[in-house]
Design brief:
This protein is α+β, with helices and mostly antiparallel strands and 120 residues long. The chain folds into 2 domains: 1-30; 35-110, N-utilization substance G protein NusG, insert domain (mini-chromosome maintenance (MCM) complex, domain 2, Sandwich). It has 2 helices and 7 strands. A 4-stranded antiparallel β-sheet has the order 2-1-7-6, with no helix packed on it.
Protein backbone atom coordinates (compact mmCIF):
# COMPACT_ATOMS: atom_id res chain seq x y z
CA UNK A 1 0.00 0.00 0.00
CA UNK A 2 1.51 3.26 -1.09
CA UNK A 3 1.35 6.57 0.76
CA UNK A 4 -1.25 7.79 -1.73
CA UNK A 5 -3.48 4.79 -0.95
CA UNK A 6 -3.20 5.47 2.77
CA UNK A 7 -4.14 9.12 2.29
CA UNK A 8 -7.12 8.11 0.14
CA UNK A 9 -8.35 5.62 2.78
CA UNK A 10 -8.05 8.25 5.52
CA UNK A 11 -9.93 10.84 3.43
CA UNK A 12 -12.75 8.39 2.67
CA UNK A 13 -13.03 7.51 6.38
CA UNK A 14 -13.14 11.19 7.37
CA UNK A 15 -15.79 11.90 4.73
CA UNK A 16 -17.92 8.96 5.89
CA UNK A 17 -17.77 9.99 9.55
CA UNK A 18 -18.46 13.64 8.66
CA UNK A 19 -21.50 12.83 6.53
CA UNK A 20 -22.90 10.49 9.18
CA UNK A 21 -22.43 13.08 11.92
CA UNK A 22 -23.99 15.77 9.73
CA UNK A 23 -27.08 13.64 9.12
CA UNK A 24 -27.64 12.99 12.84
CA UNK A 25 -26.86 16.51 14.02
CA UNK A 26 -28.70 18.50 11.37
CA UNK A 27 -31.85 16.39 11.10
CA UNK A 28 -34.86 18.27 12.46
CA UNK A 29 -36.22 17.07 15.76
CA UNK A 30 -39.35 17.84 17.67
CA UNK A 31 -39.35 21.13 19.49
CA UNK A 32 -40.49 20.81 23.11
CA UNK A 33 -43.71 22.64 23.77
CA UNK A 34 -44.77 22.67 20.11
CA UNK A 35 -46.06 19.10 19.86
CA UNK A 36 -49.66 17.99 20.12
CA UNK A 37 -51.13 14.57 20.85
CA UNK A 38 -54.10 13.64 18.67
CA UNK A 39 -56.27 11.02 20.38
CA UNK A 40 -58.72 8.88 18.42
CA UNK A 41 -61.04 6.54 20.32
CA UNK A 42 -63.63 4.12 18.91
CA UNK A 43 -62.97 5.40 15.39
CA UNK A 44 -63.68 9.06 16.23
CA UNK A 45 -61.43 11.98 17.05
CA UNK A 46 -61.50 12.29 20.84
CA UNK A 47 -59.30 15.36 21.22
CA UNK A 48 -56.06 17.25 20.66
CA UNK A 49 -53.82 17.95 23.65
CA UNK A 50 -50.79 20.21 23.84
CA UNK A 51 -47.94 18.38 25.51
CA UNK A 52 -46.67 21.45 27.36
CA UNK A 53 -49.10 21.14 30.28
CA UNK A 54 -49.10 18.16 32.66
CA UNK A 55 -52.44 16.40 33.09
CA UNK A 56 -54.28 13.09 33.36
CA UNK A 57 -56.90 12.43 30.68
CA UNK A 58 -59.76 10.02 31.37
CA UNK A 59 -60.85 8.50 28.05
CA UNK A 60 -63.27 5.96 29.56
CA UNK A 61 -63.67 4.18 32.89
CA UNK A 62 -60.64 1.99 32.25
CA UNK A 63 -58.43 4.10 29.98
CA UNK A 64 -56.26 6.89 31.36
CA UNK A 65 -53.58 8.88 29.58
CA UNK A 66 -50.84 10.91 31.25
CA UNK A 67 -49.15 14.00 29.84
CA UNK A 68 -45.96 14.95 31.64
CA UNK A 69 -42.81 16.84 30.58
CA UNK A 70 -43.82 17.25 26.91
CA UNK A 71 -44.62 13.55 26.43
CA UNK A 72 -47.64 11.24 26.70
CA UNK A 73 -48.31 7.62 27.65
CA UNK A 74 -51.19 5.27 28.37
CA UNK A 75 -51.35 5.14 32.15
CA UNK A 76 -54.10 2.53 32.52
CA UNK A 77 -55.96 0.33 30.07
CA UNK A 78 -58.01 -2.83 30.43
CA UNK A 79 -56.92 -4.48 27.19
CA UNK A 80 -55.82 -8.13 27.45
CA UNK A 81 -52.09 -7.80 26.69
CA UNK A 82 -51.49 -4.20 27.71
CA UNK A 83 -49.08 -3.51 24.86
CA UNK A 84 -50.15 0.14 24.76
CA UNK A 85 -49.33 0.56 28.46
CA UNK A 86 -45.93 -1.09 28.03
CA UNK A 87 -45.18 1.14 25.02
CA UNK A 88 -44.23 3.89 27.44
CA UNK A 89 -43.72 7.55 26.66
CA UNK A 90 -43.91 9.06 23.20
CA UNK A 91 -42.78 12.60 22.47
CA UNK A 92 -41.46 12.90 18.88
CA UNK A 93 -43.57 13.88 15.93
CA UNK A 94 -44.79 10.79 14.10
CA UNK A 95 -44.67 8.43 17.08
CA UNK A 96 -47.89 6.53 17.84
CA UNK A 97 -49.46 4.33 20.48
CA UNK A 98 -52.13 1.97 19.22
CA UNK A 99 -54.52 -0.26 21.19
CA UNK A 100 -56.44 -2.44 18.76
CA UNK A 101 -58.90 -4.07 21.24
CA UNK A 102 -60.12 -0.68 22.49
CA UNK A 103 -59.68 1.14 19.15
CA UNK A 104 -57.41 3.75 20.72
CA UNK A 105 -54.83 5.64 18.67
CA UNK A 106 -52.53 8.37 19.98
CA UNK A 107 -50.29 10.20 17.53
CA UNK A 108 -47.79 13.00 18.10
CA UNK A 109 -48.04 15.76 15.53
CA UNK A 110 -45.92 18.86 15.24
CA UNK A 111 -46.60 22.30 13.84
CA UNK A 112 -43.30 22.05 12.01
CA UNK A 113 -42.56 19.57 9.27
CA UNK A 114 -40.32 16.77 10.48
CA UNK A 115 -38.15 14.97 7.98
CA UNK A 116 -36.58 11.59 8.34
CA UNK A 117 -33.89 9.77 6.39
CA UNK A 118 -36.41 8.49 3.85
CA UNK A 119 -37.86 11.85 2.86
CA UNK A 120 -36.74 12.94 -0.57
Amino acid sequence: MTIGDKILVVLVMIATVSITALIFVSSPTSVPGKNTAVVNFQGKKYGRYLLDEDKIILISENIKLEINSNRIKVLENNCPQGICVHRGWIYKSGQIICCVPNKLLIEIVSREKIYDGLTY
